[in-house]
Design brief:
- By secondary structure, this protein is an alpha/beta fold.
- It folds into three domains: about 190 residues, Rossmann fold (3-Layer(aba) Sandwich); about 220 residues, Nucleotidyltransferase, domain 5 (2-Layer Sandwich), CATH 3.30.420; about 45 residues, no CATH class.
- Helices cover about 35% and strands about 20% of the residues.
- It is built from 19 helices and 22 strands.
- β10 and β11 form a beta hairpin.
- α3 runs parallel beside α4, α4 packs across α5 and α16 packs across α18.
- The N and C termini lie far apart (about 85 Å).
- The C terminus is likely disordered.
């Protein structure tokens, strides 16, 4: 700028800055939208494309609002027949509204250059004729993007796609959410995005309700580390002209966490504050400890695995016939049954947890099998024997992490991959399946055996970086004096998840020459052996295939 030039006015400076923010960065020019967005941003847009309600907890500054600007432009710019509708953005202050409209203007210029006019207007919020400043972008489709006041009444009489940004920090979140949900009746959509602001905040409650299945919708999560792994710092380097390197990214991560200090867990890791306590209270667990079944324990010494195979099988056969068999006979043959298996070989206990869905939809654990020091082959013996005798067996999930992969594999080979899932336990798996199990406890739709070790195991579940799971280094002592690692908790979660999956039920019955089903033993069809892939051993009236036959 020449020295003799007139200084820019405040209005002119604001206009120039707005033009700059409403243009797509030169580094991204010419790229398709999928190339511009990071995987987490794509996942968010995919969720909003196919669900009416999406709730997203995120780290600070991971670009979700920026990506949603593209979603809003594509939605408002489309014809009604193609899913077009008004987009109604609500932040908690005027600066957020202006920034979002600027972002949408940038996307509009990139997608459809004829639709770039941004207007400001005032509307009456119904409170003593008070005028509220708002922003609008109109499209040739007839729809518009409007940034509204955070007051719930600003949605009155409107219809479309509502975006509630940083929802946890709004003054009237419950009333705002209630007003937004009304738009779903006529085909609208609601997206709730926020960083956490406490465990008891309406945002965290809504998020847990969605994850637990209490509200229909989808939850999308993106922590600071997730964004870094997906290229956030590389994007920052691209935009700022810095040279990316793994060392520079690690230093950036460390410095960012230091900036947030004690608040890093909530601001960056999606962990609501005061949320590090137990996931299930003792009172809640004990209220659901109503199943009369026992904990059946098969504990063997360290020399057991070196005994002859016949001796090992005979020992376990006796346990199954004397303890497990009578409990299986008590099961209601009309109820559907499932199971979960958390594997352990030494140190921790290996638990097999059957579960049935009762007529009033309560999930009841009839008994629990606990194994310690039991070799792979004998654990397989227990799992195959018990699973074959579960009435109306609908499926099972086994821990296939580490040494558990063998047992999970042979069980899937025995019963089929459509009934058995080999689960690699991970934070993502716990985040998806723990909330529905917790909801079952809260709604008194879970019944477990009344045993102090099971209660203590479930109390070991805590929120770790926002994920409910048992800490690796957490150990307790059971009623038998042996160490425990919350062993019942993952096994029950696996069983509960199995009971919530899609059930595959099939059967094949061969008609005998007499016109009726030939049966063996307790009324089982003659072709039970064909359906279960095994051969009967010896006597023709045995009810199940020979144990260990594959």
């Amino acid at each position: 700028m020449a020295y003799d030039a007139e200084p820019l006015s405040e209005e002119k400076w604001a206009e120039l800055r707005r033009e700059a923010t409403q243009n797509l960065p030169a580094q991204l020019a010419g790229k398709e939208l999928p190339d511009v967005l990071m995987p987490s941003q794509k996942a968010l847009l995919m969720a909003t494309a196919s669900n009416q309600l999406v709730v997203s907890d995120k780290s600070r500054r991971v670009g979700f609002t920026w990506a949603i600007g593209a979603d809003a432009v594509l939605t408002a710019g489309a014809e009604k027949a193609s899913g077009g509708m008004d987009c109604l953005y609500i932040g908690y202050n005027l600066d957020m509204a202006r920034e979002f409209i600027d972002t949408c203007a940038m996307w509009a210029k990139a997608f459809m250059p004829a639709c770039t006019d941004v207007g400001e207007f005032f509307f009456d919020d119904g409170d003593h004729d008070r005028q509220i400043q708002a922003f609008r972008i109109r499209f040739a489709s007839g729809f518009e993007i409007v940034a509204l006041s955070s007051r719930p009444r600003s949605l009155r009489g409107r219809q479309g796609y509502v975006i509630l940004d940083e929802f946890a920090f709004h003054d009237e979140p419950d009333a705002l959410l209630k007003a937004a949900m009304a738009l779903l009746i006529w085909g609208g959509k609601v997206l709730v995005i926020s960083t956490h602001n406490g465990v008891d905040n309406p945002f965290n409650i809504l998020l847990n309700d969605v994850r637990a299945g209490k509200r229909p919708g989808v939850a999308v999560r993106c922590t600071f580390d997730d964004a870094l792994e997906q290229g956030l710092y590389q994007r920052i380097c691209l935009m700022t002209g810095k040279v990316w390197s793994p060392e520079a990214e690690a230093a950036f991560r460390t410095s960012t966490r230091r900036f947030y200090g004690a608040g890093a867990a909530e601001e960056l890791d999606c962990v609501p504050s005061q949320g590090s306590g137990v996931y299930l209270t003792r009172a809640l667990i004990e209220a659901c400890s109503t199943s009369p079944g026992p904990v059946l324990r098969l504990h063997v010494g360290p020399d057991f695995e070196m005994k002859p195979e016949a001796e090992r099988r005979s020992y376990v056969d006796a346990f199954l016939e004397q303890q497990v068999g009578p409990e299986l006979e008590k099961l209601d043959p009309n109820l559907r049954h499932f199971f979960g298996q958390d594997f352990a070989l030494t140190g921790d206990a290996s638990l097999y947890v059957p579960i049935c869905i009762e007529r009033m939809l309560t999930r009841r654990v009839p008994f629990v099998i606990e194994m310690r020091g039991v070799p792979h082959e004998q654990q397989k013996q227990v799992v195959i024997y018990t699973t074959e005798r579960l009435p109306r067996f609908g499926g099972g999930k086994l821990d296939a992490t580490g040494n558990g992969s063998y047992l999970a594999q042979v069980t899937a080979q025995r019963f089929g991959g459509d009934l058995i899932e080999q689960v690699k336990l991970s934070q993502a798996w716990y985040l998806e399946h723990m909330p529905p199990m917790k909801a079952a406890f809260e709604d008194r739709e879970m019944a477990i055996p009344a045993h102090i070790d099971l209660v203590d195991d479930l109390r070991q579940i805590v929120l770790i970086r926002g994920v409910p799971m048992v800490p690796r280094d957490k150990r307790t002592t059971g009623a038998d004096g042996l160490p425990r690692h919350g062993d019942f908790a993952p096994a029950l979660a696996l069983a509960d998840a199995a009971s919530r999956g899609e059930v595959v039920e099939y059967a094949y019955h061969r008609v005998s020459t007499g016109g009726a089903l030939a049966t063996h033993g307790a009324g089982e069809p003659d072709d039970f052996r064909n359906r279960h892939g095994g051969a009967f051993a010896g006597d023709s009236d045995r009810r199940f295939p020979a144990r260990g036959t594959f």
